[in-house]
Amino acid sequence: KRTVTQIEKNGYPDSIYINAAKIFQGIHIEKNKDGIVVRYGDNSESPMMAFKDEHSRRLSYELAFSALKYQDLLEEILLDSKAYPCYSIPDELTSLLVVMLYDLQDRKFKKRKIFDEEELVAEVQEVGHYLYSYRTKLAAALARCRIKYDALSIEYFVPETIWKQEQRASALPVCFWINTFKISLEDAIRDLEMKGLRKVESVSDFDHNTYAVDQHCHDVLVFPSSLREELLHLDLFADCKLLLQ
After folding, report:
1. Strand partners of residue 155
2. CA-CA distance, 113 to 102, in Å (whole number)?
3. Among 139, 187, 206, 213, which residue has the fewest nearby CB atoms (within 10 Å)?
4. CA–CA distance, 222 with 238 (Å, rounded to integer)
5. Pairing of strands 198-199, 210-213
6. Considering only CA atoms, which of 183, 190, 162, 175 is closest in space to residue 243?
7. Which phi and psi angles does 240 have, rounded to 5°?
């Protein structure tokens, strides 16, 4: 768990891409048949997915839904760069192509790191190498899209309704369960206060370095949304003593 941040910065294990592609295949937006340009193959059968653990499941769904948010943009980049259609990649792998393209642009088109203990998947390796060979043309296509739509970043391509939902969600307080099998409430509070956090009575008293004990569940701690990333890097979280709700 202590290498999670490193994995995310350098890409994902092959199994994450495969599962994200299967999820995306079932949730992507079907275009009008007369206007279909990018084809995703048949998705009539429910895919079988084997997640290594809960963290892998979460990463797979996050990647799939990130690709869904930017489906129109990703398809336009593929077409504009001439990376699609690719006759060596069948329609059944188009979902994999899209989710891996999202991740490639999120890494600023840098090469993905392969981890020592990673189990490689032939389809992921093939699509990854193919996209990386087109990285210059894909980056240029993304730049043209940004100029065309006067967008400072790809976040500007998110539909307004989704953008508003994300803004509301990002402002909500963050809740962590205390894993009482590993640490007591008192020890967790002591650890947090040693790191400079201050206890307040309720969320209405929050500033940045504060937290509160939930009024109804005394093994739940509530933090300002601005602390989320900082909390995810604490040993308390890495050691599963605090569990993100």
Report:
1. none
2. 16
3. 187
4. 18
5. parallel
6. 175
7. 60, 30
Q: What value, to the nearest 5°, has the Cα angle with vertex 30 and ends 29 and 33?
A: 155
How many Å is the Cα radius of gyration of the chain?
A: 21
Render pLDDT for 93-141 as a digit per residue (tens, 0 to 9): 999 999 999 999 999 999 988 777 778 999 999 999 999 999 999 999 9
- Residue 7, H or E segment: helix 4-9
Query: pTM above the 0.85 mark?
Result: no
Question: Are the CB atoms for 131 and 97 separated by under 8 Å?
Answer: yes
Across-strand partners of 212? 222
Judge whether 238 and 1 are in contact, CB under 8 Å: yes
pLDDT tops 50 at residue 231: yes
Q: Which is nearest to 83 in space by CA: 53, 128, 121, 49?
A: 128
